[in-house]
Amino acid sequence: MTPAIRLILIKLLQAVPVVLIVSILAFLVLNLLPGDPAVIIAGDQATPAAIEAVRHSLGLDRPFIVQLGIWFLHIVHGNFGNSLVLNQTVASAMLQRLPVTLSLAGLSLAITLPIGIGLGSLAAYYRGSWIDSSVMTVALVGVSVPSFWVAGLAVALFSVVLGWFPSSGYVPFAQNPAQWLRALLLPSIILSLFEIGFLSRMTRSAMLDVFGQDFIRTARSKGISEWRIVSKHAFRNALVMVITATGILLSAAIGGSVVIEQVFALPGVGRLVVEGILARDYPLVQGVMLIYGLTFVLINLIVDLAYSFADPRVRYD
Amino acid sequence: MPADALVSIRDLTVQFRTDRGWVSAIEDISLDINAGECLGVVGESGSGKSVTALSILRLHARGTARAARGSIMLDGRDLLRAPERDLRRVRGGDIAMVFQDPMSSLNPVLTIADQISESLRLHQGLSRAEGRSRAIELLDLVRIADAPRRADEYPHRLSGGMRQRVMIAIAIACRPRLLIADEPTTALDVTIQAQILELLRDLRAELGMAVMMISHDLGVIAEFAHRVVVMYAGRIVEQAPVGTLFSAPRHPYTEGLMTSLRGRDIPGQRLGSIPGRVPDPDESIPGCRFGPRCAHVEAVCRAAVPALVSISENHDVRCTPRSQALAPACL
Amino acid sequence: MPVTSETSVEVRDLTMSFGSGGAGRRPTMVQVLHDLTFDIGSAETLGLVGESGSGKSTVGRILVGLLKPTGGSVRLFGRSVTGADRAANFAAVRSRVQFVFQDPHAALNPRIRVGHSIAEPIDIAGKHSRRDRDDRVRQLLELVGLPRDSADRFPHEFSGGQRQRIVIARALSLSPDFVVCDEPVSALDVSMQAQIVNLLMDLQDRFGLSYLFIAHDMTVVRAIARRVAVMYAGSIVEIARNADLYADPLHPYTRALLDAMPRPDPTRIRPRTIPGEVPSLLAPPSGCRFHTRCPHVMPRCRDESPRLLEIAPGRQVACHLFTAAETTEP
Amino acid sequence: MIEASTVPEFAATTLAPRQRSMILRRLVAHRSFQIGFFLVGVLAIAAVLGPMLTNTKPSAMHISHRFSPPQAKFLFGTDMFGRDIFTRVLYGARVSLWVGFAVAAIAGVFGTTLGVLAAQFRSLEGAIMRLMDALMSFPAILLALGITAALGPSMNSVIIALSVAYVPPGVRIVRASALVVRELDYVQAALIAGARAPRIMLRHILPNSIGPLLVHLSFVFAYAILAEAALSFLGVGVQPPTPSWGNIIAEGRDYALQAWWIVLFPGIGISLATIGLNLLGDGLRDVLDPKLKG
């Protein structure tokens, strides 16, 4: 067995307990917390009998262990339970909405990575200069300004006043790629603001960290140009950090899409969750949380492995 | 400036940015490095010996240091004022450097061959393949066994001693006229230190380059140098040919260092020690900075900063009472 | 003052192995110490020299209870601290054993005033009133040559040499009888080294301390130690009285170490040093672990590990050059 | 007993001039920290003094002044019910800053405790860290959504939900630095002297591994303010009529074109608070972790 395969297997094994905890957590969040879902679902004015009926229909009157068993059964079947409102399984509701969210997150990541890394490197390279301070100011505003607020202002300006973009709605890529892009561009850019700020700040400090290392001085003592030092010596070391950041960014993009989808009325998973919560469709919320949780266990695993393989010190030992 | 001086430093003062403003790390450093010679620079931490070395190639971290005064001449050009582009040709070309810590001085994500051939490809326009085969030759030259295999490995696979050999291979790749070795053996074990010193001595003879050997260890200096510069608290306090310095040191600080080492041969005997501690660079001390620790301090030492005075041919001392007693009366 | 026995420390066949390997690797045991046997007498200094990877620091850490050895026995002041009553016996001798670290910057908690750092062993032992404790701290500061008002300051306000004095003051706070000094001067400048070595010698004279003085620098050991043990790759290769060892090193490695030491003498022509490096603990050479670098290697050295034998009074060597002599000339 | 009867020959060592509290002095001199401290300070004072700075109530409706643009009487204008936006933003600041502070404090306490415990006791490490891994697998806002859904929308639910989301990174940070500190010589010295786990943790590991956490907490404070606003905006956070910056924006959203001031001012409030906290965090990071200094 090569070290690489062994590393992958070990990481996979380490992920198993996390997957288990994630699925139990997603269950517990709505079943064990002090709030009584039946009361909340039935509403404030409900009679005790009505609450009891809700409780029975949700299976909440059964023993805890049985509920947990049913929960795992749903997971194993791959349908992740049934929505109370939508008349479909959570899995199929999610599959329907996923392309929107993935398009949004993917597009924003595609915008973020080059700009964030570029700006961060630029600021690090020109540290202390006006370029550094301008980039860092922009980045600071990016991580500080609430996206739904900027989204509101942007819709008012670009969609309503200038009419450049539709203010809401979604067109599938397969149906019309141009319309798809037009519908998603503004939301993606707004989603990217935070991410660009975050990534450029992180890139800058990682690069500065690398700049302080002895081997950069060695490189300079060879007469290598500053640009080559940045692009070859520093960046390859900082890459490890950028990979780690990508995992966090993806998580931020998925989280941010909840709000952005709401503002732009995009029919994605984020909107599904919010609708689910407002409609008190607990199984739906649970199911989506679980699927997202499991997805990120997988993403973190990939990031972890990519990280190991980007660094020869880990790769060979 | 002597005719055979390769690098000539005059009145160099370098300052660092601190919380309390700019503070001088070295002051009024003047020294020559002659072609093919081996100059030893010795001093304790805070003496400014590494700052001096890094100043020659302007390798201080950007924005943290400035040369307030002085010049560093190479081939009639002042390196302190040369444009960055010109300086890059000097770095790794005319003047190369080996650093103290071989564990952190190599880039962990690039192969050995890549790091050695980089300056060859840059300064001599070699292709990637040519660079690699030159790198393997250089690894042989620094006596690394199994060079072709080692060339494709990453630094973390090598021991400290091997990494320092790789650092030396990088430094000599373009046949520099001056090799600056900044405490090249301090981080290494005793037997490995001896191996590296032997390697450097052999290479110096083979390639005919000058070496500036910086060390806190008088033993290393005694073994390696032709001429020695002793630094204390940012200033040169004494310079002399190695034989003179070790047989007849004139500065009280040099004397103190010698006695603290020599007493060690007798078990149980108290060592000669220099009382007190090295002052911080921003501590203000009137007159001679060694004054507070000096057993022979006089009123004149506190009155003014002593000058570096020649007391015989090639022997300079920065100590007012001593130079008054010893300087040739030909003034 | 407690009654001291003749020997402070008795170490017999001490072995130590560490588990190695993390994620992605099969755990393997790495043996870092092989059957060490030595004594340290009352008020004696034993120098322990060797290069990195020799295991010398591990020995020191075992003697103060930071590490638990995997084999052999250690007796401190006559009490076994490796047997069944390990914990109880260690508790009984804890206040008599102390440690001085190599790096004076890492050895002091940066957030605690040095007075409190010095008093920490007293606080833990819980024997003194606050007043006694503060008096004791001032006394200790004076003892190591620091101004009394140092107690209120933080470590960053002191130079390296001064911090090492503080570390020594802390080590002395409970009036120990045995102190492990792990490279106590190797992080210091030459002029500071002399101050600290002199201080350690003075303290020994006044209080009858025993030292295990660990160092890689043989010249420092020469000044302070009465006897010297030389370690290589986890084994003691030679133990001798100070004067004997430096005048006439027997083991080829001891000789190599002495030859490799730079000396402040420009007229000396140093013999060429031995080739190679200290072997990896993961793949130690067969037989004598020094045979890969030894200028006098014989076929026997590759197969058979030499034992540490007494070849003259107070003089032990582990080398086939001498075991051979012993077997042919009984 | 060792006594100092005579002063040793080399007692003459002198001390360097006193350097009191370098960290505080550096912080005070740090530009980002100054600006951040000013912004956060002003907002915090405004939030605390809130009721004294205005002569009306956040829920008071001035029916004849609906949709008034900013003017002397209504500094930030009024909303669709004629409520004074200035007063509402002031009261919103109390909610938002309190939520942020509470979340940072809870994340700090739990992060420190669990982090130090995980570093000190191998038996707890696996369980604590796997649980943190699992919690960190959910995007923070989604986890918070799920928890607020279960608890029912309210300010306290938001605080609990965001705390759960922001504890895990704190645990990781504290554990990582505690693992480093644990191996340092001064901890070994305490072990040699016979110190037990509580002393080691409280006196040595905790004070020396908390720096990175403080930096992190100032960012958590900022994230929590943003997240509270987002949750309230989505309608699952702080519920009207209690004003929070998030729900003021949500309510004013539909009138953004005709009455821009309703959404503009609470948004500026959020932005200034998070900018201030981020600058504060940057300053702390530069001073407590000089390695990353730019």
From TrEMBL, chain A:
Keywords: Cell membrane, Membrane, Transmembrane, Transmembrane helix, Transport. It is a multi-pass membrane protein. The chain crosses the membrane at residues 12-33, 104-126, 138-165, 180-199, 238-264, 284-307. Pfam families: BPD_transp_1 (PF00528), BPD_transp_1_N (PF19300). It comes from Acidisoma cellulosilyticum. GO terms for molecular function: dipeptide transmembrane transporter activity. The keyword Protein transport does not apply. One of its GO terms (cellular component) is plasma membrane. Its main location: membrane. CDD domains: TM_PBP2. It comes from the Bacteria. It is found in: Cell membrane. Residues 98-307 form the ABC transmembrane type-1 domain. Belongs to the binding-protein-dependent transport system permease family. This is ABC transporter permease.
UniProtKB/TrEMBL annotation, chain C:
Residues 9-258 form the ABC transporter domain. Pfam families: ABC_tran, oligo_HPY. One of its GO terms (cellular component) is plasma membrane. It is a peripheral membrane protein. Its main location: membrane. It comes from the Bacteria. Keywords: ATP-binding, Nucleotide-binding, Transport. GO terms for molecular function: ATP binding; ATP hydrolysis activity. Belongs to the ABC transporter superfamily. This is ABC transporter ATP-binding protein. It comes from Acidisoma cellulosilyticum. The lineage of its organism: Bacteria, Pseudomonadati, Pseudomonadota, Alphaproteobacteria, Acetobacterales.
Automatic annotation (TrEMBL), chain D:
Keywords: Cell membrane, Membrane, Peptide transport, Protein transport, Transmembrane, Transmembrane helix, Transport. GO terms for cellular component: plasma membrane. It holds the Pfam family BPD_transp_1. The chain crosses the membrane at residues 28-49, 97-119, 140-166, 214-238, 258-281. PROSITE patterns: ABC_TM1 (PS50928). Its main location: membrane. Residues 93-281 form the ABC transmembrane type-1 domain. GO terms for biological process: peptide transport; protein transport; transmembrane transport. It is a multi-pass membrane protein. It is found in: Cell membrane. It comes from the Bacteria. PANTHER family: D,D-DIPEPTIDE TRANSPORT SYSTEM PERMEASE PROTEIN DDPC-RELATED, OLIGOPEPTIDE TRANSPORT SYSTEM PERMEASE PROTEIN APPC. Belongs to the binding-protein-dependent transport system permease family. This is ABC transporter permease. It comes from Acidisoma cellulosilyticum. The lineage of its organism: Bacteria, Pseudomonadati, Pseudomonadota, Alphaproteobacteria, Acetobacterales.
